[in-house]
Amino acid sequence: MAVMVAAPSCENLVAKRQTHDPRDTGEGTLSTESAQISGSTGNPSGGHIASFVIYRTGMFSPSHPQWEQPVRDSFSRQGLMAALAIRLHSLAPGEVRLRFDLATNLTQHHGFVHAGVIGSVLDSACGWASQTLMPAGTEVLTVEYKLNLLRPATGATFEGVGVVTRPGATITFASGQLVEINDPERPIATMTATLIGARPD
After folding, report:
1. Alpha helix (H) residue ranges in 3-67
2. Are 19 and 53 in contact (CB under 8 A)?
3. Is residue 121 left, alpha or beta, with left meaning phi > 0 and alpha meaning psi from -120 to 50?
4. Domains in the chain, please, with CATH?
5. Residue 158 predicted with pLDDT over 50
6. 111, exposed or middle or buried, with CB in 10 Å at 0-12, 13-18, 19+?
7. Is residue 91 helix, strand or coil?
8. Distance (Å, rounded) from C-alpha 1 to C-alpha 57?
């Protein structure tokens, strides 16, 4: 899967493909390859996306065999997910997908999904994506995130994806994207997040 981070229009695109270096024995690294791309982006609106970064998953291996259950347990304990009727849609090492349906209690005064809901979903998805790669017994807390709202959140069912971009035993970097599942090529919001692993006393 890919996370697309869009910016204003221009004629040239720079695509950065980041891949895991298997020789890394530290906290994990991502090597970056750049390519210059000219012409149409394939955007049905005919516009151009100035730049995008593609983060590919499937490049990471979990640090322990029971990586999945701690995330499911953490999700079930988080009261906010229940209050917002968020569903844990899928799990993979370094990637988490959450889904929710439009409801009046999730909207702002124009009927769009509230930015607070979007931020909560992407923050949580990034956090759990990070936890899938952390050592056993590690809990995850957010240090910082930046949320970009690209367009009004309209539709019926939404998916928030969290993807690890640089893993670490302590600090992890992740990116998130929210889409409407019937319009996945047009992101509603993107996030970059920094997360820290903590071992409970």
Report:
1. none
2. no
3. alpha
4. 62-198 (3.10.129.10)
5. yes
6. exposed
7. strand
8. 6
Q: Report how far residue 175's alpha carbon sits from residue 192's, in angstroms, rounded to the nearest whole number.
A: 4
Kindly report the average pLDDT of the chain as a whole number.
79
Instruction: Of 98, 169, 172, 109, give the one whose Cα is nearest residue 138.
Output: 169
Structure tokens at 40: 């149409």
DSSP 127: H
Q: What is the pLDDT of residues 16-67, one digit of tens each?
A: 333 333 333 333 333 333 333 233 334 433 433 323 333 444 678 888 899 9
In this prediction, residue 60 carries a pLDDT of 87
Exposed, middle or buried: residue 80 (CB in 10 Å: 0-12, 13-18, 19+)?
Answer: exposed
Rounded to whole angstroms, what are the CA distances from 49 to 55, 103, 170? Answer: 16, 31, 34
Going by C-alpha positions, the residue among 148, 132, 152 that lies closest to residue 140 is 132
CA pair distance 165, 163, nearest whole angstrom = 6
Tokens 């899938």 correspond to 132
Kindly report the number of other CB atoms within 10 A of residue 50's CB atom: 15
